[in-house]
Amino acid sequence: MELLDLSRFCMRLGDSCLIMAHRQSEMCSKGPFLEEDIAQTNLGLDLLGQAEALLIYAAELEGKGRTADDLVYKRPERGFYNFMLAEQPNTDFAFAVVRQYIMTLYLSRVYETLAKVDDETLSGIAAKAVKEIAYHQRHLGMWIKRLGEGTEESHERIQTAINELWMFVGELYEEDELDLKMQEAGYAISGEAMKAYLMANISSHLTEVTLSVPKSVYMTTGSKKGIHTEYLGYILAEMQYLQRAYPDAKW
Fold first, then answer.
1. H helix intervals, the chain
2. Please, are residues 40 and 22 in contact by the beta-carbon 8 Å criterion?
3. For residue 124, what pLDDT is reported?
4. Alpha carbons 9 and 54: distance in angstroms, whole number
5. Distance between CA 22 and CA 48 in Å, rounded?
6. Where are the domains positioned within the chain?
7. CA 157 to chain centre
8. CA atoms of 30 and 27, how far apart (whole Å)
């Protein structure tokens, strides 16, 4: 396996964690109550730490003298490879919970696989992340249950979030040439295995709380080629403003 392939793989994963962390940061002061407000912010900090570690390693493997900061602040929108699901807005609390819950299921399987690879740096990042994501999964799963079994309004809101976000789930098990290379090297599971894992876990959990999985929904693709929804541009405009206004400034 070539180092550039591993760099791209780490960059993809790091991008999704980074954008998820940004969305979680937007939840600060917007939780339904104080304790949950702090919890949501802490989820974002975990994801930011994972993103930083992955992007530092991606830059190192790339060997072009770039840093993690360069990757975050100086790439254009088409140069980011996060999943479209990660960039979807916090329409309401239910949308934030559903988006993060599905992504967390995906990340748990990814990190479990990476924790077993021979690469000490990547397996170390994954071993730490597995513990963090396990908590995320429990916490967000609790909210799926609480909203699904709560009031008529909370049930309706979370089912609406599931219905509207479902079109972005297909990318989580889509495969391209890089995915196949990483599978061959033992760094990733197959798209079919990921799909089976996601569908089994999501369907089981939703059924328990009288929620349903949407049927026959068109699945979007393209983020692995740098194609995104309109929302990523707004995120990057906010995230990169200072570096764009004052290039290479030092604080």
1. 3-25, 34-62, 68-73, 84-87, 93-114, 120-148, 152-165, 177-184, 191-208, 230-239, 241-245
2. no
3. 98
4. 9
5. 8
6. 3-245
7. 22
8. 5
When computed from its CA atoms, the radius of gyration of the chain, rounded to whole angstroms, is: 18
pLDDT of residue 247: 86
Closest CA to 82 of 184, 164, 171: 171
Nearest to 12 by CA among 60, 59, 81: 81
With a cut of 80, say whether residue 142 has pLDDT above it: yes
* Phi, then psi, of 249 in degrees rounded to 5: -65, 150
For the residues of 186-239, what is the DSSP string, one character each?
TSS--HHHHHHHHHHHHHHHHHHTT-----SPPPP--GGGT---HHHHHHHHHH
Nearest CA-CA partner of 194 in 134, 110, 123, 122: 110
Report the alpha-carbon distance of residue 124 to residue 190 in Å, rounded. 22
Phi, psi (deg, nearest 5) at residue 250:
-115, 140
Fold of 3-245: Ferritin (1.20.1260)
Check whether 72 has a pLDDT greater than 80: yes
pTM of the complete model? 0.95
Per-residue pLDDT, averaged over 243-251, amounts to 82
Q: What does the alpha-carbon distance between residue 152 and residue 101 come to, in Å, rounded to a whole number? A: 21
* Spatial distance between the Cα atoms of 68 and 55, rounded to a whole number of angstroms: 5
Is the Cβ–Cβ distance between 59 and 68 less than 8 Å? yes
Predicted confidence band of residue 211 (pLDDT cuts 50, 70, 90): very high
